[in-house]
Amino acid sequence: QVQLVESGGGLVQAGGSLRLSCAVSGRIFSINAMGWYRQAPGKQRELVATITSGGRTNYADSVKGRFSISRDNAKNTVYLQMNSLKPEDTAVYYCNADLREWTGSYPTGDKTYWGKGTLVTVSS
């Protein structure tokens, strides 16, 4: 069974930094794109950053220049380095991964999996 587990959230003052991690476990055949999304209270979930298997990245305008996404393919882990945090960055951060599982005989088709989220609170 595929699981995505986020870690690294917490309380930080404005201007501070946090590093989120998301580890993917299970019978994985391959992982394509991975990403981070966030959902603030009363708002819809929004994209923060994505990274392809080849390392191509994409960022929301609101985090460009402050956040950096990376991945360790050997560890099936994606990271989000968040610098110069602002109170408006306060949200639950979710990771996701587009991947193919290994059934034991053949790989499945692409499917998107989500973690349960980690809370980031930025105080002013």
What do these coordinates show?
With 124 residues, the chain is an all-beta fold. The chain has no helices and eleven strands. The protein has strands at 3-7, 10-13, 18-25, 28-39, 46-51, 57-59, 67-72, 77-82, 91-101, 111-114, 118-123. Strands 2, 4, 5, 6, 9, 10 and 11 form a seven-stranded mixed β-sheet that branches. The chain has a four-stranded antiparallel β-sheet with strand order 1-3-8-7, with no helix packed on it. β7 and β8 form a beta hairpin. It starts with a strand and ends with a strand. The model has no long low-confidence stretch (mean pLDDT 97).
Q: Assign the structural class, choosing from mainly alpha, mainly beta, alpha/beta, alpha+beta, or little secondary structure.
A: mainly beta
Q: Could you name the ranges where pLDDT drops below 50 across 5 or more consecutive residues?
A: none
Rounded to the nearest angstrom, the radius of gyration is 15 Å
Q: What sequence of helices (H) and strands (E) makes up the elements?
A: EEEEEEEEEEE
Estimated share of beta-strand residues: over 45%
Roughly how many Å apart are the termini? Answer: 40 Å
Largest beta-sheet details: 7 strands, mixed
Query: Tell me, what's the shape?
Result: elongated
Please tally the helical runs, counting DSSP H or I stretches of 4 or more residues: 0
Helix content: under 10%
**Oligomeric assembly:** single chain
Q: How many E-type strands?
A: 11
Mean pLDDT: 97
